[in-house]
Write a structure and sequence with these properties.
With 318 residues, this protein is of the alpha/beta class. The chain has three domains: 105 residues, 4-hydroxy-3-methylbut-2-enyl diphosphate reductase, catalytic domain (Cobalt-precorrin-4 Transmethylase, domain 1, 3-Layer(aba) Sandwich); 83 residues, Rossmann fold, CATH 3.40.50; 84 residues, 4-hydroxy-3-methylbut-2-enyl diphosphate reductase, catalytic domain (Cobalt-precorrin-4 Transmethylase, domain 1), CATH 3.40.1010.20. Helices cover 40% and strands 17% of the residues. It is built from eleven helices and twelve strands. The strands form three sheets. Strands 10-9-11-1-12 form a five-stranded parallel beta sheet, sandwiched between helices. Helix 9 links the parallel strand 9 and strand 10. The longest helix is centred in the first third of the chain and has 17 residues. The radius of gyration is 21 Å and the shape is flat. The N and C termini lie far apart (59 Å). The model has no long low-confidence stretch (mean pLDDT 96).
Amino acid sequence: MVKRVLLASPRGYCAGVERAVETVERLLDLHGPPVYVRKQIVHNWHVVRDLEERGAIFVESETEVPEGATVVLSAHGVAPSVYENATARRLNTIDATCPLVTKVHVEARRYAAEGYTIVLIGHEGHEEVIGTTGEAPDSIVLVQTVEDAERLELGDPERVAYITQTTLSVDETTDIIRVLRRRFPAIRAPKRDDICYATSNRQWAVKDLLGAVDLLLVIGSRNSSNSNRLVEVARAGGVRAHLIDDETDIDESWLDGVETVGITSGASAPEKLVGRVCDWFRARGVHSVEPFQSVHEDVVFRLPVELRRELALVESQR
């Protein structure tokens, strides 16, 4: 029988997600619906559904947006061809790409311009990887696993650099980088780690929590890379873990023999979902719901420059 629930900290929204979601909300306030958004603004279907109810329209491609309309680019970043298409359609483009993803794009362009082969550590098909690859498609080679790194053959092993997707497992990425450094001693690395602060912090918070819980529930959508990594971290630490979109996904059979449940949430999951899951446990007689080793994050990113200009113009006209 579950006796207590422990809440990992930090959890939930990161600064990049906060910025992206607020961007769509502020544009809806400014212009009213519709505001078009290319792809999911962040990988959480609750967030997407809430914004749709307010008048946001999510499209797969910028080519689906009516000419002259406003389109928001998601937090995951896009290839240069997307900006070209948006310009050709005279779209009012608001770039909500997370600044930490933009940093990786800048690295890719710089390494490519200097003639390096770029090893991109990431997951094939993820929107962030697609966008980053688009910066230098002829120079980038994707590596997903340690085995990929061991098999990798490059034309000039003296001119190699690596970059990474921002939402990877810290431990797995470290293992891949170790192999790359052994095989390509001259490999260049980013000046600062590409895995974002929020991804790292949430994985460390889960590791800290594991010794105190029998089961971990990770709140996040199936297509959220960083949420899936949290499940993997727990399982690697010997604790059963499940990814849930919300409380309706909880299978009560998971709780057999469980006294303490840990709860965390991915960087694109709103805190209200944590509250709903906690209420689900309270409704079943769990009175102890408490934070575990609370850590405060104070990272804040400014809104996209295009939106700040619009807001400043509105303010000046009042």
